Amino acid sequence: MWSAREKSALVESLTNAGPDAPTLCEGWQTRHLAAHLMLRGNEPWRLVPRPWAPDSADRLIDDVSEGLREPTAYAAAVAAFAAGPVGANPMRLVGGRADEAMNLLEYLVHHEDVRRAGPDPLPPRELPVELTGDVWRRAGQFSKFAYRSAPVGVVQVVPEGPRRRVRAGAVSVALTGAPLEQTLFAMGRRDAARVRITGAPDAVAEFEAWAAG
């Protein structure tokens, strides 16, 4: 399964980076990302925001990540994420198609959060055609949500491949890039994503101002 493959690659990148490497997630180092992934994979109920404390999940990740500054503790957290839930944990029941639906995009994007951060980002990877097709299909609904408030219409275009309208409008811009680049852009990694914005100059300017805000 693609999610298992990408999880393994993400674990390797986290291990090689160590606890204090930068990521594309604002304010997070790799230890924060490791804390998030460990909690999300093994105890996701702890990340559910409390009505009386909407920032409780962020505070929990900050607290856990503080304990991961030491390389041994960080390595243990990455290993716990890699191993997944144990014992009677109900998360052990998640597998197959459910695992792909829940985790493939999560792992892909967070892997790029590690790979493309810092002063010497790594270049985009050559992904299998079957995987890029899966990413394109799975990211469609999220893209519609991500661009729901865009001031102009939005059309996603894969070079020499499919296209789709994710936001209707009298005037539209085209976002051109590979499926993973489109996903990164939609998920807020806009400076790191290799996506080209084209259209009428006023529409492009309006969209870029919205995307930067």
UniProtKB/TrEMBL annotation:
Pfam families: MDMPI_N. Residues 7-114 form the Mycothiol-dependent maleylpyruvate isomerase metal-binding domain. NCBIfam families: maleylpyruvate isomerase family mycothiol-dependent enzyme, TIGR03085 family metal-binding protein. This is TIGR03085 family protein. It comes from Occultella glacieicola. The lineage of its organism: Bacteria, Bacillati, Actinomycetota, Actinomycetes, Micrococcales.
